Amino acid sequence: MPTAFYFDELCLWHTTGEHVIIAPVGGYLQPPSGAGHAEGPETKRRLKNLVEVSGLGAALDWRRAAPVSRAEMERIHTAAYLDKFKALSDAGGGNAGHYSPFGRGSFEIAALSAGLVKQAVSDVFHRRVDNAYVLSRPPGHHCLPDASMGFCLLANIPIAIEALRAEAGPLRVAVVDWDVHHGNGTEACFYDRDDTLTISLHQENCFPPTQGGTADRGRGKGEGFNLNIPLLPGGGHQTYLDALDLLVEPALRAFRPDLIIVASGLDANAFDPLARMQAHSETFRHLATRLHALAGELCGGRILAAHEGGYAEGYVPFCGLAVIESFAGQRTPVEDPFLGILTEQQPPADFIAFQRARLERQAREAGLG
């Protein structure tokens, strides 16, 4: 079976209003002459376009999906939050939380974004497709049960997980979040549960500030089932591979999931305006290849990725293509035109060694090394 690609053009019609990077226009903040809010549609549209023009699109199984229902949303979100979001959306837009503006109709588009993830989760688990990449927008990994946050309006992955459990019964699901920002929303949804392993690799103290520390390991039954891996800014390619070796892979082996879901933020790349991690397309290729192989060993190959952040229009497509190529087991003629200089700009060996020592210490403290 081919790798499936879940996409709906309407997801790119979600609007965040008139902003500059993350701040609303007004006062001394001049309206933008070009790109406005960081979470615009162009990075996703360019990724979809590169998938097509590279030739990889012809080898993928392109799929759409229905929106999630209100009842499916309510397995994760409070009724009060959903009522507020829906009312603001119908009234022309607003902001239902922290740094999460939206326009008219975004409630329905967010339901569609979550629906794409839900359908992919079901299809991968039931082996209707081999694996999948979901070009979901708006993203979801910051969204809390009772509030939006960080451009995220619905918790796409948690909604999809609970929909699958309602359909298939109890399951052990692992979420590996390699978005450069802490996956606080997914963490909050499952913090007191032992059936979901949540792993977040993120730039330390980036967003949300002060969250995502190593001491946050879960609560009650969930103690030990949340793993935060904060990385020093500028860590680069090797730091991600070290984190995979020392923490992510041992945690997945110990948990033995029935399904692995990747929260595929591509904003750890060196050009991203909202982070400083110095990763490149081969970083994401290595991560995807290793996790794909691990899924084959642990859960019959059941793995999919749901798109999250990534705000460098010119570079996100090369990172995303590398992930999808890895899942599909194909390599297109596309060469990353920025890879040479980004490889030369990687951090020095002593910094990489210092970062690795931190990861080794964390692995010991988490009982993984």
From TrEMBL:
GO terms for molecular function: histone deacetylase activity. It comes from the Bacteria. Pfam families: Hist_deacetyl (PF00850). GO terms for biological process: epigenetic regulation of gene expression. InterPro entries: HDACs, His_deacetylse_dom, His_deacetylse_dom_sf, Ureohydrolase_dom_sf. Residues 41-316 form the Histone deacetylase domain. Belongs to the histone deacetylase family. This is Class II histone deacetylase.
